[in-house]
């Protein structure tokens, strides 16, 4: 089974649980013999190649390498860098690789080793919106001639190839929310498509560029199923499905209603709806998420499947807690994006109630997000300035160290489709309190559960865990045993079964 998997992030470059889940699922699928090609907007070169073959759209558009391939009489639009530059000196090869990885990478890696492994997917888009077929033929010829190329040079049969390009163009401009962006900024530029791979102000433009690149990649890759993770990739998944004729699975990790409550961004919701209509199957990470999907979107219920997330298992023994912390001041941890969805304001209100009774307790809010300035101001306003620390965004080892320092982890989410962080905390022997408005609460037995809005109950449970050692020990011991059963191989097998259902 070969899967073209589409995701916006992949470890170690992540901003939250989405990238972690993508990695874990890919690892589990590999265990079951599934070959995953994972397409991200921007690959950094340090992703784990043992889990999946990583294709970055930022390194998939190289007019210069196409030109050099042509000079070397190498036919085909998809070229092997080593073969394309065979017989040349090391300088053109070095220059070509520098285009892909940057000059600094070449100092760290041997050019010869890179040449043996590098595979270039050329996606120099020749698309243009709002043209009929005859006009587009003239437009395409003009564009190719301006680059000194022809359809034959690109390995595209004149009639069959042209029709596939026209179909891709039409499928793209029919996507709601992408057509206006496509007019000047994507198709008409004739330049390589640029990606930051982030969630910044140009996100919608990058979503459109990603759809263009994935559409081109889908016409050249061999795969059986398309698997798209969350709304940023749904347009690309729909295009890949139309171009390839392969079935599409849309994986819903969080909906716009989870992120914003009852005030969804209409463009995001539109792209979500597009994906759900195009999908052959929709995987939700919890029953909680599936109920929201049925409530807020037009979707065929027979498409929906629920597959809970899991947690990456630690192979090594747990290190000791850091010695520099004050053992007489227990630490209560919030770790996640500081946004409406995660309920940071409820965490602060519960903290204020705890401090009124146990002033030695320290609270940590680890993460970043749009509510960060508001939470800092609010903490000062309600008298928590001396009792809370804001760490900013943490990565990898910093996250592990924060878990080791904590005596209790609290996830007070307003609407959490799943929530992997409590599982990560439990795997490091940290007791957890989770919101009942979360998917992870469906699979956990050895965790305390609260309604996110009930800050009095939340404060009582925090105090209970900190005061009663026997309760802490039970939650640690039983929680550790529980998460050992939540391995990624289990949901990966369920997802593989869905793949087989789709292609049968």
Secondary structure: elements and pairs:
Layout: E1 2-6, H1 17-31, E2 35-40, E3 53-56, H2 63-71, E4 79-80, H3 81-84, H4 90-101, H5 103-108, H6 111-117, E5 119-120, H7 133-146, H8 158-173, H9 179-185, H10 203-218, E6 225-229, H11 234-244, E7 248-252, H12 256-260, H13 266-278, E8 281-284, H14 287-296, E9 304-306, E10 331-335, H15 344-357, E11 362-366, H16 372-381, E12 388-392, H17 396-405, E13 408-411, H18 421-427, E14 432-435, E15 448-450, H19 455-467, H20 469-484, H21 489-503
Parallel strand pairs: 1-2, 1-6, 2-3, 6-7, 7-8, 8-9, 10-11, 10-13, 11-12, 13-14, 14-15
Antiparallel strand pairs: 4-5
Helix pairs in contact: 1-21, 8-11, 10-11, 11-13, 15-19, 18-20
Written overview of the protein:
This protein has 504 residues and is α/β, with parallel strands linked by helices. The chain folds into 3 domains: 1-61 and 192-310 and 487-504, 3-Layer(aba) Sandwich (Rossmann fold); 125-191, no CATH class; 331-484, Glycogen Phosphorylase B (Rossmann fold). 46% of the residues lie in helices and 12% in strands. It has 21 helices and 15 strands. Strands 3-2-1-6-7-8-9 form a 7-stranded parallel beta sheet, sandwiched between helices. Helix 18 (421-427) links the parallel strand 13 and strand 14 (432-435). Helix 10 runs parallel beside helix 11 and helix 18 packs across helix 20 (469-484). It is globular, with a radius of gyration of 25 Å. The N and C termini lie close together (12 Å). Mean pLDDT is 78; it is low at 61-102, 108-136, 153-169 and 176-192.
């Amino acid at each position: 089974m070969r899967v073209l998997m589409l995701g916006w992030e992949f470890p170690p470059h992540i901003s939250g649980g989405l990238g972690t889940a993508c990695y874990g699922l890919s690892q589990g699928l590999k265990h079951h013999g599934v070959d995953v090609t994972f397409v991200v907007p921007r690959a950094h070169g340090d992703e784990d190649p043992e889990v999946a073959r990583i294709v970055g759209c930022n390194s998939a558009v190289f007019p210069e390498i196409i030109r050099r391939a042509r000079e070397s009489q190498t036919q085909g639009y998809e070229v092997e860098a080593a073969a394309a530059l065979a017989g040349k000196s090391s300088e053109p090869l070095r220059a070509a690789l520098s285009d892909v990885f940057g000059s600094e990478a070449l100092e760290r890696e041997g050019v010869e080793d890179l040449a043996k492994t590098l595979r270039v997917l050329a996606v120099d888009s020749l698309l243009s919106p709002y043209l009929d077929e005859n006009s587009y033929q003239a437009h395409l010829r003009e564009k190719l001639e301006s680059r000194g190329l022809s359809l034959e040079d690109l390995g595209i049969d004149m009639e069959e190839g042209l029709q596939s390009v026209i179909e891709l163009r039409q499928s793209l401009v029919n996507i709601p929310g992408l057509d206006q962006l496509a007019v000047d900024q994507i198709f008409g530029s004739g330049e390589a498509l640029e990606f930051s791979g982030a969630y910044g102000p140009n996100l919608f433009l990058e979503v459109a560029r990603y759809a263009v690149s994935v559409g081109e990649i889908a016409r050249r890759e061999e795969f059986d199923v398309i698997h798209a993770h969350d709304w940023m990739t749904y347009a690309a998944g729909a295009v890949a499905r139309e171009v390839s004729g392969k079935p599409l699975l849309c994986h819903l990790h969080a909906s716009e209603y989870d992120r914003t409550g009852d005030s969804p961004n209409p463009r995001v919701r539109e792209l979500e709806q597009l994906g759900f209509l195009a999908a052959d199957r929709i995987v939700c990470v919890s029953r909680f998420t599936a109920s929201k999907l049925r409530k807020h979107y037009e979707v065929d219920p027979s498409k929906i499947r629920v597959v809970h997330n899991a947690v990456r298992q630690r192979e090594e023994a747990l290190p000791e807690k850091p010695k520099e912390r004050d053992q007489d001041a227990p630490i209560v941890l919030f770790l996640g994006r500081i946004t409406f969805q995660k309920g940071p304001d409820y965490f602060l209100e519960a903290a204020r109630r705890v401090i009124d009774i146990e002033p030695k307790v320290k609270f940590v809010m680890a993460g970043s997000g749009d509510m960060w300035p508001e939470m800092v101001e609010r903490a000062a306003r309600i008298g928590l300035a001396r009792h809370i620390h804001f760490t900013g965004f943490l990565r990898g080892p910093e996250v592990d160290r924060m878990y080791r320092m904590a005596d209790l982890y609290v996830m007070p989410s307003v609407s959490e489709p799943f929530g992997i962080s409590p599982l990560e905390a439990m795997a490091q022997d940290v007791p957890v309190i989770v919101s009942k408005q979360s998917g992870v609460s469906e699979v956990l037995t050895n965790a305390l559960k609260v309604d996110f809005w009930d800050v009095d109950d939340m404060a009582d449970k925090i105090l209970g865990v900190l005061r009663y050692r026997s309760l802490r020990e039970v939650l640690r011991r039983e929680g550790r045993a529980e998460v050992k059963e939540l391995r990624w191989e289990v949901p990966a097998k369920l997802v593989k079964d869905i793949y087989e259902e789709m292609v049968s």
